[in-house]
Amino acid sequence: MTTTAPQVGKRRRKGRGVFGNTGLYVAVGVAALLFLIPFYLIVRNALSTDAEITGENWKLLPSFQWGNISELFSDPTVDFGTSMVNSLVVAVLTTLGTLLVCSLAGYGLARIPYKHANKVFYAVLATLMVPTAVTFVPSFVLVSSLGWVDTYRGLIIPGLFSGFTCFLFRQYFLGFPKELEEAARVDGLGYWGAYWRIVVPNSLNFFAAIATITFISAWNSFLWPLVIGQDPSSWTVQIALSSFMTNQTVNFHLIFMATAISILPLVFVFLFLQRWLVQGIAQTGIKG
Questions:
Q1: What is the spatial distance between Cα 262 and Cα 270, in angstroms, rounded to a whole number?
Q2: Is-contact 266 219, C-beta < 8 A?
Q3: Helix, strand, or coil here: 250?
Q4: 132 vs 21, 176, 261, CA distance in Å?
């Protein structure tokens, strides 16, 4: 029985496909391993002593010093539990406020017709070109004059508006089907009603993607909470982490344990919302 040329070509293509998939899996596995190495080092050092972290005889597995957890939360110099609560409150409220403010601004720029809409949009884009350092001092003077130092208001309100987030919402709403909103207006809804009852329920994927980015950014914020949170009771987790490293001593095991615990909320948020992250950003379309 002879083998025809099409059959041979088919087998060759099948062989190349098998080897191609194997190479892809190997590449993905190596990339995943490289990605997980920093997390392994954090956990390994968090469950070790300072001598094991800085010693010459490096070991693959830690000595599992579970007492480091209780030592972290019982440290009299840093109230780490309170700082975690502060970061959670700030990150959640900043995320919710940013979604509301920036989505309304983006919807207005995309849908409400008025002659200065483009000028306002260009002004919003211009804010992306202004370095944060330029507005830092005026923002602090304003917050201080309002008596918001060491308060949640001072930590949250100045960061509610983001020009980049407003831009993303505007781009997304430009691609949102107008037919749905027109049908809502026929039923007697105005711009607010169409936004709240039609646009938002049909844009949850994009809102989830923006919420993920905003939450991570707010949780990792350092410079602004450092200035506003002058009292230890108003410290966020990033400020608490920096307090373990002073001019005299460096508590390596506490730094790594605090880091391991502080990234857990970010890991949970990312794992829960990751499937919406890429989809939501892709839906902006970057057009209009």
A1: 14
A2: yes
A3: strand
A4: 46, 32, 29
Overall average pLDDT of the 148-172 stretch? 92
* Contact call for residues 206 and 283 (beta carbons, < 8 A): yes
- At 195, list the tokens: 């936004």
Torsion angle, alpha carbons of 18, 23, 25, 31, to 10: -170
User: Token match 């804010």: residue?
Assistant: 127
Residue partners of 205: CB distance under 8 A and separation at least 6: 276, 279, 280, 283
Give residue-wise pLDDT tens across range 226-258.
999 888 889 999 999 888 877 667 788 889 999
Contact 261, 72 (CB under 8 A): yes
Q: List C-alpha distances in Å: 140 to 79, 156, 173, 197.
A: 25, 13, 33, 38
Q: Is the per-residue pLDDT at 115 higher than 50?
A: yes
CA distance 241 to 250: 11
For residue 202, give both structure tokens. 């049909």
Total length of the chain: 288
Over the stretch 32-83, which tens digit does the pLDDT of each residue have?
A: 899 889 999 999 999 998 888 888 777 888 888 899 999 999 988 889 999 9
pTM: 0.84
